[in-house]
Structure formats: C-alpha cells, structure tokens
Design brief:
The protein has 167 residues and is mainly alpha-helical. Helix content is 65%, strand content 7%.
Length: 167
Amino acid sequence: MDDHQPLDHVARIQADWRRQRPDIDVSPQGVIGRLHRLADRLTTELCRVYGDYGLSEGEFDVLCALRRAGEPYERAPGDLAAHTMVTTGAMTKRIDRLERAGLVTRRRSDGDQRGRIVALTGPGRELIDQAFTDHMRNEHRLLDLLTPDEAMALEALLTTWLSRVEE
C-alpha cells in the first residue's frame, strides 16, 4: 500500500491485528476484507435498482433466468434453481410472489404431468427487460470507477481465482 495514502478501514483493522498479534500474518485481510466490503457495497447498489421495480435480488434473478431462456421464456423450477443463485427451497417462495404479481405463470409440464413449468407473462417480460436495462446501466456506472485496463485485469484475476475456488 502507498505510504502517502490514509489508511482505509481494512488497513486500520490489519494495523490493529499486527499490534495485537504480530505472530500472525494478516496480509490476506488486505484482499479478502476489501472484497467482502466491496461485495456488500455492490450488493446495496444493485439491490437499489431491483427495488425500483418492486423486486428482491432473488426475484430479479428468477426473472432474468426465464428471460435468458429465450422464447417461450419458461423453465422447470429445478432448471430455474440451476440457472440462478436461488436454492430450490427458496425458489417456491419467489415463484409464488412473482405469480401473485402477475409476472410469471405456472402450468403442468406437457411431458410429465407431475412436473411444473414456470413462464414469464407479457408484463413480466416487459418488467424484466426494463429492469435489466437499468441494471446493466448501473453495473456500467459502478465499473466505470475503474479504467478499462483495470477492469480487464480485475476480471481476469477474479475469473482465475473463482475457477480455482470452485474446483
């Protein structure tokens, strides 16, 4: 870290630990702590846009998964869970709420009468198209705090790190 910059929140915590526990290397906090703080801030900024459309983060994710499926914009609930960050247990609650709001419908699967299919409605597609446009505008705004070279380097590092953690 540049000696001329004031200490940020994470650096102050590290300095405290270095004084209290000089026997432990706290350097990982420099990366992990900042990523954690950044993730919290980014989530807050992203959720603000979802909220503008009356959606939670999970509901936005479900609608996006349906929209990405292409016409006729439908998936089985298990497929939705596989294409989102939402667990199957939480999926039912989100689908219930989205159905009550008129954004999705549920029907029996043509091939398996026990199975269900969740589909975007016309209003659901309109809403997610608008919300996703604003979401991407917001992500561009957040990423524009970095130079294009910094953003590319960060994406490459995060891609490498994530692939190793997820192995």
